[in-house]
Amino acid sequence: MLNTIYAAYGLSWDAVAGADTGARDLADEALFLSRLVVTLLPAQPEARGLLALLLYCESRCAARRGSDGSFVPLKLQDARLWSRDLIIEAENHLSTASRSGVFGRYQCEAAIQSVHAQRALTGRTRHDALATLYQLLATHCSSVGVLVAQAAAMVEAGEAAQALAVLQRLVPAELGSYQPYWVTLANALVAAGDRTSGAQALQTAIGLTEDVAIRAFLLSSLQALLQHNGDATA
Question: What is the pLDDT of residue 174?
Answer without folding.
Answer: 79
